[in-house]
Amino acid sequence: MSYQRFLRRYSTEERESFETKTAAADFYRANGIPEAIERALNELFFHKPTDVYGYLANYFTNLSAPPSISRLNGREIYDTRGQLSIEVEVFCIVCNKEKRMCSAAVSSHFGPKESLLDWKAKSQERVDHVMTALQWISGPLSNMLKCQNPCTQSEVDHLLSNFYLEERNICNRVEESSPSESERVLTSPLPVQTKDKKSIDQGKKNNTAEKPFPPAAPPEPVLPGSLAIGSVSLAVAKTAAQLKGIPLYKYIAALKSQETTSQFHIPVSLVTLLSCGKTCPGKLSLLEEVILIPKAGQRVKQIITMTLEIQKEMMRIMNTSTKAGATQVILCDSGALTANYERPEQPLDLITEACTNLGLALGTEIYLAINCAAQELMDYSKGKYEVATGILKSPDELVDMYQTLISKYPAVVAIISPFRSEDKDQWEKLSNAIGDSCSLLFDSTYKSKTPPLPGVTGHILKYIHETTVSDLVCITSEHQGSLLMGTTGNEPCIEDSLADIAVGLGLDYVKLGGLSGAERMIKYNRLISIEEELVQQGILEGPGRCCTTDRKLN
């Protein structure tokens, strides 16, 4: 009897029921459902868990399809300075349901600190960047990553980078087609050949003829919308770590080593003690940051406690001092103390006195670094650096000034951005003079693609704009030991991922700023949590990896 003749013996309802059952059996058989249920029940009986259905739920969750990105969502947020920024949310399909997984935001940086005169223009520029980024996130980026497995970081970042390059090429072609606009690039005026008697008297005499002053290179443009690239990359990485059930630092370490990391170490925290930069009160502009470098081997809590004690003693000294200009104590944007000083020796003397009073051996137990941010001090009309109000130094005179400081304060083992990148001869001269005892570091925030400078032994790496997680992994793999992670002045208020990134990348140092402000303390607290977790698991690497006893940072 044929199958069709067999079905005719039954009513329509019975035939439909039979066909449904047959289709169901075929569906279950094709997907291996009976075998999977049999194995699940056998495992259940063998383990006899207290929560029977919870065990079955976990068992079948492990058999479910890999999660996939369903969409991205961008939101406007405000950074630590109250300026507009973005946050990216990642939504995934997990077990046939859409779930909000993680959010992330990266720092924004649009060049040197704006003055009051160009504040309005900078604010509008930031709005344009944010609006473009939001359009990218909700439109092309969301469509591009739809159905993508969030655990394939390199593929995701490759797609993001290609999209960014295409947008940049489009922008470049538009600029090339309108030369009248492209020529309106900020250029530095040529130095005026005038004699400044005051600056000549205060600077050291130099009989050798100085080379022509190199003008500033055009600022590296920031593509509107680039914030979206870094934010999406980080949000996807956090999502993957959550799906794998591991901390972000372990996920990033796995991306870097392609295998399970058995030991981790906590980067040494470089803490900003004092700021006497261009935007601070007082005449002194040269020392944007005076940074404490603790001796390797100390726990993060110990470093924070010691730094707070030093700051308290510094405040006590400043508050009780009768010296002119040393009584006003405030906190600056970097979360550090700032005071009214005129000479670079004054803040260094203050720290030396505070350490002596506390019984801390400066140059043995703790060291110092100074961030000069010299690119913000150049007076292009005179071709000199304004190290303090009314005090100008030529690049060669500044070399002599640094030499004098380092010889007087041997605890200073690193100088960050002592010159502009254009002053290559002075970088080399300073390195030849003090390179054996003091490291020269370059903050490459402004020009990430700047060629290597002579004498530079390390760079400050910052997670901004179009930088992806894969970019960070690649850069640190190629330059292990010569990078330290740093922050910008425009940090997201609730983002602590920088601590995980620094640990996961295996960096020796991390520069998070001063001990004030939620955007900085959340990162310090995250470092403490990671350290405690590694201790509990017995996988915290012992001290000795990043020792500073040779009087150099690296």
From TrEMBL:
Record EC number: 4.2.1.11
GO biological process: glycolytic process
Composition-biased stretches (Basic and acidic residues): 194-208
CDD domains: DD_ENO4
Domain Enolase C-terminal TIM barrel: 263-544
Enzyme class, broadest EC rank: lyase
The reaction(s) this protein catalyses: (2R)-2-phosphoglycerate = phosphoenolpyruvate + H2O
GO cellular component terms attached to this protein's record: phosphopyruvate hydratase complex
Renumbered residue ranges of the record's region Disordered: 176-220
Regions that span the bilayer: none
Keyword annotations from UniProtKB, A to Z: Glycolysis, Lyase
Keyword Lyase: yes
GO molecular function, one term: magnesium ion binding
UniProt domain Enolase N-terminal: residue ranges: 69-252
Associated pathway: Carbohydrate degradation; glycolysis; pyruvate from D-glyceraldehyde 3-phosphate: step 4/5
Similarity section: Belongs to the enolase family.
Protein name: Enolase 4
Organism name: Mastacembelus armatus
